[in-house]
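can u do me a favor
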């Protein structure tokens, strides 16, 4: 029997539906607003939500993503990804090792891994990952990160040497997402800049447009 095909990771803004940003807004509502703006990939990150509520939220958000034709990944929680039918997981520095996530999820799901350099990206590929999150590209207050800021030049160097598609993480927003795309990123993770916007859906639309502008800039820069 052939193994199921893994979902394709869309290129562009990688939106996080996070329970620590605007906690008064239900996760399902955050996801709905992100998706209505055209989000093509959404990561559900639940660091404060109790387990039973987290499972219910995961199932709700996964269903919403499926209706919208978007890829849905769970941050860290392989168990919730399995129970909710999510498209895969993203694991960080202190989470379940990527090879263990792959073993549990099987070949038909996406596994993303946070790394800090090209060597980490190569190790992630060997462990069975599909893409890597690299950063912090810029300083961020959303999450404490025990790693130096790469800056655009440092980030671009990792992208050039990575054997896997790279998602830029850390401090990405409307003001700099085009530069991240221009540096060669496959995606750019956005948290606060989208969720704190007065109109979340409109912010997502603008992020999508800005990322596409950066991709076009990179293409033109590489033209003879």
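np, heres the sequence
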């Amino acid at each position: 029997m052939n193994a199921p095909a893994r979902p394709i990771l869309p290129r562009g803004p990688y939106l996080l539906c996070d329970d620590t940003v605007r906690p008064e807004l239900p996760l399902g509502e955050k996801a709905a607003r992100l998706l209505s703006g055209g989000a093509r990939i959404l990561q559900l990150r639940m660091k404060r939500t109790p387990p039973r509520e987290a499972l219910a939220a995961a199932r709700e958000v996964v269903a919403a993503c499926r209706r919208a034709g978007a890829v849905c990944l769970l941050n860290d929680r392989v168990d919730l990804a399995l129970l909710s039918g999510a498209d895969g997981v993203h694991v960080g520095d202190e989470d379940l090792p990527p090879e263990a996530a792959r073993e549990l999820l099987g070949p038909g799901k996406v596994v993303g891994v946070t790394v800090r350099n090209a060597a980490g990206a190569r190790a992630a590929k060997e462990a069975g990952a599909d893409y890597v999150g690299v950063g912090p590209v810029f300083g961020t207050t959303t999450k404490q990160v025990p790693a130096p800021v790469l800056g655009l030049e440092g980030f671009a160097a990792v992208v050039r040497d990575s054997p896997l598609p790279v998602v830029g993480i850390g401090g990405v927003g409307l003001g700099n997402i085009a530069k991240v795309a221009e540096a060669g990123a496959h995606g750019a993770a956005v948290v606060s800049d989208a969720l704190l916007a007065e109109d979340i859906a409109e912010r997502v639309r603008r992020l999508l447009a800005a990322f596409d502008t950066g991709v076009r800039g990179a293409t033109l820069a590489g033209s003879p």
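The chain has a mean pLDDT of 94. hope that helps!!
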